Amino acid sequence: MASRASAGWGYLLAATLIAVAAGFSGDNVVLAGALLVLMALAVLLRGPAEPAAARGPDDAEALPAADEEPLGPIVDTMRAALGALDLPIFVFGPDAIVLFQNKAAEKLFGPLAAGLHISARWRSPGILDMIRETLATGEPNQIEHSERLPSETVYVVRTAPLDLSALPMVKRKLYVMSLRDISELRRLDRMRSDFVANASHELRTPLASLRGFIETMQGPARNDEKAREKFLGIMLEQATRMSRLVDDLLSLSRLELKAHLAPDQTVDLVPLIGHVRDSLAPLAAELDITLTVHLPEGKVEVVGDRDELVQVFENLIENACKYGQEGKTVDVTVLNEPGKPVEVRVRDNGPGIPSEHVPRLTERFYRVSVADSRSKKGTGLGLAIVKHILTRHRARLLVRSEIGKGTEFTVRF
Ligand code: ADP
After folding, report:
1. Among 93, 121, 362, 411, whose Cα sits 20 to 30 Å from the Cα of 274?
2. How far is the C-alpha of 307 from the C-alpha of 276, rounded, in Å?
3. pTM for the complete prediction?
4. What's the gap in Å between 378 CA and the centre of ligand 1?
5. Across the beta sheet with 343-348, what order do the strands follow?
């Protein structure tokens, strides 16, 4: 079928031939007239110049003109339907030339002119091979693809042919490529497996030590009364460490179960902090620390779960006593100033926390020094529990620390 474009090129070719012939014959007046008419016809029939963007990087074939195939209304309908989805989608023809991308794709990856080859947007060999395979076999395919910029993102990229059997007037095959962001799923998977690995490792250490002592007592130290006494002491310590870990793990899992349920009781922080101070007085005395509580006049009420808030302040004050021991004093201040959020500050005058550790303190099993934490009966889960409880309470944990001067943990309701 002769198109308007090829007729235009034909007239242009004829005009050029006439010009050449005129040059030879010298009969310029008649031939110049014919030349002009043919050139004008050529320009009219060629129509507007094809935009540069309408050619793919591989100089792939341009889309057929709209009148060759009635795709216009179909593309418009698809564009409207896919525009409502939040999944980025590209629609392309059998030559991998993009017809359009939906709004979600434009928002994520920027504008892309119709008529470009898909490789103008996606250069990854994995994606291009997959598209090639779908075009060749007509079968859907999917791969995982990672983008480094602007941040590490993992997509499941899928290509599939569109089933247009209900539209017999459409002869051309059409294909879609969608990208599903699975970065969050991957992150959660990694967190879960890290957590299981960490928890098992933490439990395995005291367990190995217990086994070692049992074997020694069954064998070489069978009749050594003195060694047995000593080993039993260490075994009790290890078993206690294991139960502390299990208790903290259970606390965390219970908190996770009700993470989406906001607390609905009203709690007065004044008696609550007083209770925590009394329960930690023996530890403070043992560590030779002066624990001082500064409370405002009257009640300081917040919406919360009493037992969980007791756990928050116990963990923070216990940490201040243990890790800030050399500062000798720990101050707990409850602030309830008009027009400002209620705050509880726990301050020690210990060695402080290097700033690179501060953002990670609430991660499970994160410790500035594992040996230090173990020697102080830590599990590495205390601040993770605090963070979970505060998230459920819509409260924030702020940490300010200065090396050599001390640390202040603030709970802001
Ligand atoms: P742990 O059971 O080890 O105490 P936490 O989650 O309660 O675990 O605390 C994590 C780490 O944060 C601790 O191991 C310690 O290194 C550091 N840390 C917490 N509170 C303080 C503090 N007041 N001063 C210095 N370091 C602290």
Report:
1. 362
2. 11
3. 0.67
4. 8
5. 290-294, 329-335, 343-348, 406-412, 396-402
Choosing from 323, 345, 387 the residue with most ligand 1 atoms within 8 A of its CB, the one to mutate for a pocket test is: 323
- Three-class SS state of 135: helix
Query: Among residues 252, 407, 238, which one has the least CA distance to residue 322?
Result: 407
CB of 361 sitting under 6 A from ligand 1: yes
Is residue 390's pLDDT more than 80? yes
* Residue 129 phi, psi dihedral angles, 5° rounding: -65, -40
217 by Cβ neighbours in 10 Å (0-12 / 13-18 / 19+) ranks as middle
Whether the pLDDT of residue 277 is over 70: the answer is yes
Q: Is residue 365 lining ligand 1, measured as CB closer than 6 Å?
A: no
> Per-residue pLDDT averaged across 123-132, rounded?
96
> Is 248 near ligand 1, meaning CB less than 6 Å away?
no
Please check whether residue 172 is in contact with residue 71, taking contact to mean a CB–CB distance below 8 angstroms. Answer: yes
Write out pLDDT tens, residues 36-85.
Answer: 333 333 333 333 333 333 333 343 334 444 445 667 888 888 899 999 99
293's tokens: 């509580």
Read off the pLDDT of residues 220-272 as tens digits, 9 standing for 90 and up.
888 999 999 999 999 999 999 999 999 999 999 999 888 888 899 999 999 99
